[in-house]
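[Automated response] Your request has been received and processed.

Submitted sequence:
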Amino acid sequence: MKASVRVTAGSLKGRAIPFVNSRFGDADITPQKVKGALFSMLGESLEGLVFLDLYSGSGQIGIEAISRGSCLVVFNEFDRRRYLFIREFLEPLCARESYLALNMKASAALRIIREKGIRPDIVFLDPPYDKNRTGGSIYPFLLETLSEPGTLGDDPLVIIQHYSKNELPEEAGMFRRRFTRSYGTTSLSMYEPAAGKMSADAPDGHIGE
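Generated structure:
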């Protein structure tokens, strides 16, 4: 089955992403409603921001970030078939310097990103769901790893897409949860630095709702 996935805004608006689930292990695809909500939170333009999509799947979230002006998008997808799909989709459309595609475990990808001196401003986390109430146990570890010195840029944001019944921490590492929005069985939780001074009316607009 081909996923009904299109870029919704920016330079690639309307572009179809021909991700065929049956070829890629029936990967879960972020629903269009949830993707729209995510980018509404982040703002229309991501110009000048570095975006990390750590569990890329079909690649649609990172592709949307490129379309909306992110100066660099890092894709990481552990499944080799999905990784190759993302790379082959991007090569004819995007300047090579606008993205980095990795094919490794999340922990290894974070190490490579750090070694390359890449400091993401926005991190999107959508690991495979554990549909148990306690299935959010991976998230504190990820937030603590992202809190390590030299990993992220100034005033970073982390957005987690997760099963709505998962219990996510109020705080982990240097992050505190700003809010959670639910869309049926899927939720988005936004984290920001606990000591940060960011507010909903920040002039740069990249965290506005």
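Summary generated for your ticket: The first helix runs from residue 32 to 42. DSSP finds five helices and eight strands in the chain.
If you did not submit this request, please reply to this message.
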